[in-house]
Amino acid sequence: MRSRNLDKELLVKQMAIESIVNEGLETFSMNKLARACKVSVATLYIYYKDRDDLILRIAVDEGKRMGEAMLKGFDTNASFEAGLRLQWKNRCDYMLANPLVSIFFEQLRSSSYQAKFLESFKAIFHGPIRQFMENAVRNGEIQKMPLEVYWSVAFAPLYALIRFHTEGQSVGGVPFEISEKVLWATFDLVIKALKIK
Question: In this predicted model, what pLDDT tens digit does every residue of 6-32 receive, in sequence order?
């Protein structure tokens, strides 16, 4: 049995993400990936059992990387505003530095891979965020609310700005590039919406 080559494995991951982002999950195949990587299909099977294993393992690995980046420097006991501000910074920095991975995750969210991908991501991220929210409620900074409500208000505006930036345009095709001014003005509105007056 041949041994694993870390450089080749990294190339396979990068090309798989690029291929899925550019061509979609439906047309992604091990044969196409092997051609793009200039390796034999047999080489791919050194690293992955099959197409599904490849996609899920890449998703789990990248989800772990993203979760760790989002939690960098995060303190569940921070004030609500300081903790959420760091979350915005970490998420924005990660997504702008890894635009293909962000699009890859979006594609997974609307596929049969969603449940397994979110399960692995949740294992890293859910506990600290829940603790942070519970602390903010206990400290009288925010109201108790379902996680889905919190996420929709706290992060959907950030993800919309990042999507506009990645696409190079906002609503109606107006050219758009994210700036610190726009990012933090949006954040201030989110804080006003969530914090108890």
Answer: 788 899 999 999 999 999 999 999 999
